[in-house]
Amino acid sequence: MKQLKIGITCYPRLGGSGVVATELGKLLAEQGHQVHFITYSLPFRLGKFHKNIFYHEVEVRDYHVFKHPPYDLSLANKLAQVATMQKLDLLHVHYALPHAISAFLAKEMVGDQLKVITTLHGTDITILGQEESFKDLIQLAINKSDVVTAVSQDLINETKSVLSIEKEIELIYNFVDKRIYNPRQCEHLRSEFAQPDEKILMHISNFRPVKRTLDVVDIFAKVNKKIKSKLMLVGEGPDLPKVQCKVQELGLSDDVYFMGKQDDVAQVISIADVMLLPSEKESFGLVGLEAMACGVPTIGSNAGGIPELIKHGETGYVAPIGETGLMAEYCLELLQNKARYDAFRQACIHRATHEFCNNKITQQYENIYYKVLEMEPKIEVYNR
Ligand code: GMT
Questions:
Q1: Most distant pair of Cα atoms in the chain: their distance
Q2: Which residues, at least 6 apart from 334, have a Cβ–Cβ distance to it below 8 Å?
Q3: Could you tell which of 171, 234, 283 is best to mutate to test the pocket of ligand 1, judged by most ligand atoms within 8 Å of the CB?
């Protein structure tokens, strides 16, 4: 199988799209492909040195006539330069704006032999795609890409209806690296946060309004009235101060931990009993998958692609957005019934390993690359 030269662009500092892009790049490098990250800073999950991974920093040129330095143009120029110098086969850009537009410009500069794959991650469509000022641009970005993928069927449907897109969009779900996300024994760490008879509920996000983090506190307050429990909040963002006030107002300060941003997410998740994901919008919900792989069921809303990830009544529960009472009931139903909880836990591990594992999803992306470059697809090698 020919080893490819792949350029990857993503938001390097935070967010699920950056995590997926970076993890994918690392896995492709393990498969022997040469991977070139072209971003404005080193992707935060890149971690260890690998001989097939290269990094090209996009420097934004400022000049006194610019009111705003044009990042998208600097990116387009860098993409074209790297593609030419390194003889890249393709650019795989994550998040439509501005990355797919910059890639389109780079392709115009380099020539049609450079293929562009765009992966839609969610808010590039569900929020920016609704804005008149961006709509036509995103439509162009999608239509000009050689291949477009999206991380859930719901996101494909929404893209087609919001932007009236006819182009085929391929479904490739988010994935987890099962060598990192798996059930771990961590009694010692757990005992630092909760007594043996207490349950741990957890929420991890960027605390933006779409995450409905005040609902997380509501759910916890209802659960905490019935069973001894703690809430661990991981991450930071604009709604954090409101959450802190609400926790205080409800007299829950002794039972809620504000952990801030954490690096070793797999370790943190492993001490949780339940993950909460009551989002208003969520194209997939990577954190729900990370929890699933660690054997932790998620209770969430039925927004976007969440029901495609969480099998209601098997690996967690979903309820209508904002129905915190029902979400709390689901938590109690699981946390008070050990046999049911254990069955959910096993179902989580099985589903994450079989449906969303790194080998399977990486190969789906590789096959898309081979197809667009008119090469033979890779045969299935992952364990089902
Ligand atoms: O969830 C976020 O706010 C971050 C956001 C991003 O753009 O990085 O995540 C989006 O992409 C992830 C990876 O594909 C998905 O798992 C998240 O569901 C999606 N977030 C939203 O749709 C709100």
A1: 67
A2: 274, 297, 299, 317, 340, 341, 344
A3: 283
Q: Where do you find CATH 3.40.50.2000 in the chain?
A: 5-175+357-372, 187-355
Q: At the topology level of CATH, where does 5-175+357-372 sit?
A: Rossmann fold (3.40.50)
Whole-angstrom Cα distance, residue 95 to residue 92?
A: 10
Identify which of 221, 231, 222, 224 has the alpha carbon closest to the alpha carbon of residue 193. Answer: 231
42-56, 85-99, 224-238: range with lowest mean pLDDT: 42-56
Q: How far is the CA of 205 from the centre of ligand 1 (A)?
A: 10
Nearest-10 Cα torsion for 254, 260, 262, 268: 20
Q: Residues enclosing ligand 1, CB less than 6 A? A: 15-18, 20, 121-123, 151, 174, 206, 208, 210, 281-286
Superfamily of domain 187-355 in CATH is: Glycogen Phosphorylase B; (3.40.50.2000)
The pLDDT value recorded for residue 89 is 98
CA separation for the pair 193, 340 (Å, rounded): 24
355 CB-contact burial (10 Å; exposed 0-12 / middle 13-18 / buried 19+): middle
Choose between 166 and 26: higher pLDDT.
26
Ligand 1 atom closest to Cα of 95? 7
